Amino acid sequence: MKFILQFHIYQINNSYICIKYIYSYTFYYGHNMNIQQLEYIVAVDNYRHFAKAAEASFVTQPTLSMMIQKLEDELEIKIFDRTSHPTEPTDCGKKIIEQARTILKQIEKVKEIVQEEKNIIQGEFKLGIIPTIAPYVIPDLLRVHEESNTQIQLIIKEMTTAEIIENINTGDIDGGILSTPLKQEKIIENPIYYEKFYAYISPAENIYSKKKLKINDLQKVKNIWLLEDVHCFRNQTLRLCQLSKKQIQKSTANYQAGSIDTLINIVDNNQGVTVIPELAAMNLTEDQQDHLRDFEDMEAVREVSLVVHCNFIRRRMMSEIIHLIKEIIPTAMQNVQLKKNTIEL
Question: pTM for this one?
């Protein structure tokens, strides 16, 4: 019997409808390949273990094994090498699994189109967030999310900016909260708030007595503590303070921290200065607030946005998440007029 497996995905993008030809293949077998079989081979590839894949798929191992064996018989090809431990896909199996992942993502898109058209706001939203924002947003976001009784299931993971962009492009996450502008052609940016930069100074520094700092005051400090290179906040700090790598290397000590809280603790216990964003400043103790300084004649901010892929369909869900975030951010920080003061990444 000749069987044609064919997927036509209708993608709605505001003003037009685009018909995408996704996958077409012709088989000469007596049975149909089904979505469940594709899900099972992806699960085995993820766990590299039939029993664990079955457990994650909420079926018994014999059922999962039988369905995969049936698929292999239809295709007359072995997808997995069952003699290896852990289980490994064959060379041809790797190609089949890769295509299965693509098909399953496109099927999920069909469901999303239907939900969006029916104004149904429910389901998973996989969200990446950079480490310099997460500690100051996520705790309150989880609280308002719980209080809202929304049917959105938030799955949140800390990632660097580069990781968020990569995972959005591959479809492994739905969106990300990070500093913008990114200037990425396929990424849509939805600005949410703008936060100021503050200097955080050790009392041991001569400039500590100043109520406000000028940029060139930082040239008089022995140690300027920064985040490691993977953080975009480091680049913004260097631009803000007009510091070159050569100037940073002149420091008597050099430690690249992984978090803003670490930088604060370093300044608390050593000489030097660091730069922190407004939400981090709002989380300081009363004593630590004394170490904060504004920059004179400078209204520099970082723009924080929720970003998604240009083909992202569930715009109502995205809007709901933006609304939840805005609930926990001071209104003054949501002023779009601050955008003109944004420091580039």
Answer: 0.70
